[in-house]
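Re: folding output
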Amino acid sequence: MTTAPRSEPNRIRATGLSPANRSLERGVEILRAFRPGSELLGNGEIAERTGLAKSTISRLTQTLVGCGLLQLDAGERAYRLAPPVLSFAHAMRSGSRVLAAAAPHMRALSERRRVNVGLAAPDRDSMVYLESIRYARRVALREVVSGQRVPMELTSLGRAYLAVAQPARRRELLEAFARHRKKQWAAISLEIEKARSDVLNLGYCGAAWQPEVVALAAPLVVDGAVYVLNVSLSTKESIADVAVDLGSALLRLVDIVRKELSKQQPRKL
């Protein structure tokens, strides 16, 4: 399910930032260049993925090595992410009140209905899994893990997010998808519009972007941030048939998580 890197539609613009902030932004872009299947990247590959000058990359990769966030493979003359980067992900997961509230109920639904259950959030033009509880028989589906990205415009996760995204953000993403997809965009845009209508009217939408895999997804807005819960399974049934069977279960899951979050005391600053 890994997808090839592509241009990002919401690249942060450096205009008006101080030189220090621009350096931080560029350093983050270098770290973002590393994706599954890209264990080692040389300066040229990083330049291609980020659009940064090689001289800038050479300077910043040295800084990131010094900070312990990149490792230099001298033999390959390339870089890999260093182990401390993983601690950031662990800190995020352990500190997420949404994940803490959702995970037990996701697991219960997965075991009760023998389906896959996921929780994801948007990142640029992709959706990133925060949690993925797999009950699938197909190996490809069992390998979906926390931190994995899926295309926003093709998946139920992404389409549920687009349905409730701020209008300006939604418009920006749709324009980027139209440029990226071109030939398929007419059909995809209709599916996205249907998904938006379904979310507004039913509370969830469906998609089948992989053969014989159907997924339903519903947005969960928490403190202005949008998360998405989904259920998926391997089946030859239609999206409509799966929705009859699992749509209400997904909506109950969203409602339960929302109530769990409402019980939590706001954190005092």
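--- second protein (sequence, then structure) ---
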Amino acid sequence: MPRNAEVIRQWSILRDLEASRRLTIDDLAARTGVTTRTIRRDLEALQAAGFPLYDELIDGKRHWMLEQRAFRRLDDTGFTLAELSALYFSRTLVECLAATPFQRDVATAFEKLAAALTPGMRQFLDRLPLVMQAKGPAARAGDEDRAERERVARLLEATLHHRRARMTYFSLSSAREKEYLVEPYRLVYAQGALYMLAFVPEYAATRTFAIERIRNISLLDERFAAPDLAEDAFAHSIGVSEGTPEHVEIAFDAHIAPYVRARTWHPSQHVTDTPDHGIVVALDVCNDWALRSWILSFGPLARVLAPETLARQMKEELQAATLRYAALE
């Protein structure tokens, strides 16, 4: 039997015991689909790891239970055993934030959680990441961790206390540094990077800034009135842009249709079947770089049907790409 199956089954046993308060070995065998002998080995392994399991004879039947308040430090956290264990396990998922300035804070938080577990319990939970992993974003070149943490700290101060700020920002579109007076509204972690939503009085509009391209920032004593923001910072974008949504329709070839259909690319999407076993995906999103690069990622298996302006943009992008490979002919 695969090692991962054993870990998943034992985790299920812990969850079932915590939820049901008490279960017999026959109950656990029926729930997990294994023999009672296997369940006994699982219970012994969990006890050896330090999980507070015990059995008790009730009405002539032996029931197994999980002590809910076995650890003083666990009580101090306010978490149940399952919640604490799940948090400890999920560190493999939170590691996708490693490229952000919060890496050290996340590591410290998990160290505190781990302190409430016995060494045996930690050893058991350390096997769970073999079952589920998360691949983080590509790491940026250079080591500016400390400088970026300081910038983020200032931005959080500005956001929480509604303080205006001056910053020097490198714009990719103009390929130069520019000075901005901003009113920071929100910090957003998306697509492997940290962004700031801020109102720019010079433009009388809200703009999105990549934190990694902020060269320096200083806070002012001037305050601003923060508006009510939508829950989703980039509601009309597949990526991290803002803009007016358009109705977009994209036809996907039958070869890629099952993959596209299986995912929710945007909350507005609507999928329609086509006679050739392909699909048409309709979205109400803004026409930004994220949308265009997403469409291009499917190569010849995707074709924009509407709007015509976007279809022409895709055609120009593909023609430009073809020219770059002309030397290979």
